[in-house]
């Protein structure tokens, strides 16, 4: 498939293509806005670099999270620097001048939820991070990408020192922007000091719900594995407030963001950009345009004061209907 940027045609087998399997030209991304014109960036979450062109066709304003799975071989070892570089180059070429955030590789991914994972695993295996950052830096040079726009994000951060270490490693490699994926309650509680070190934060609504409620939807825990849970929303609120104080961008990803109404709640909690699967961009963009920022603040207050996920959902829907 031919690489493309905004306003370019290329062969594309993905949804959103026009006749003949070609992408309808997109002269600019479709900006997310509330009804009062307040902007809310709508970014794509990509599982594979091959999805970049379909994200462009869907009007994504950038890539909020390029998952690291494509850079891992079946045996769990990282792909070569050249292979990783090719993937990053494809995404950067599709989104010139736009924000692109790449998920750091996790050498501990197979250890289970409570193993040495994320930043902890990378501190034990700095060679894995070094190779990934080298691949990304090379792709940035190839595509003349702006260092402010392109960054990396790491999970399992629970201390400011971990965020500082990650940022220093990234900058040493030539990647100036490094953020944290807030997937653990500890990261939300300590978001203030962590965000003084990190460039930005991404709230993982799935991770916060899973670890705060002790539920992942398996073995009958579905009732608690609900992103509307007030406990996980209050944790997200801590991150939003800390981001506002630090002047740092706060994005959000996960099942909670793909729910258009809960996306409005997250904006009221201080989230400034939303990271979505390509096929959810249009529905969330449409829903945002129906609500003002004042509405989002009201929904957030109602949801965080609720007694349960179902109560939070009911309160917000009632407010919307009236």
TrEMBL record:
Residues 34-291 form the PEP-utilising enzyme C-terminal domain. This is PEP-utilising enzyme C-terminal domain-containing protein. It comes from the Bacteria. Gene3D superfamilies: Phosphoenolpyruvate-binding domains (3.20.20.60). InterPro entries: PEP-utilizing_PTS_enzyme, PEP_util_C, Pyrv/PenolPyrv_kinase-like_dom, Pyrv_kinase-like_dom_sf. Pfam families: PEP-utilizers_C. One of its GO terms (molecular function) is transferase activity, transferring phosphorus-containing groups.
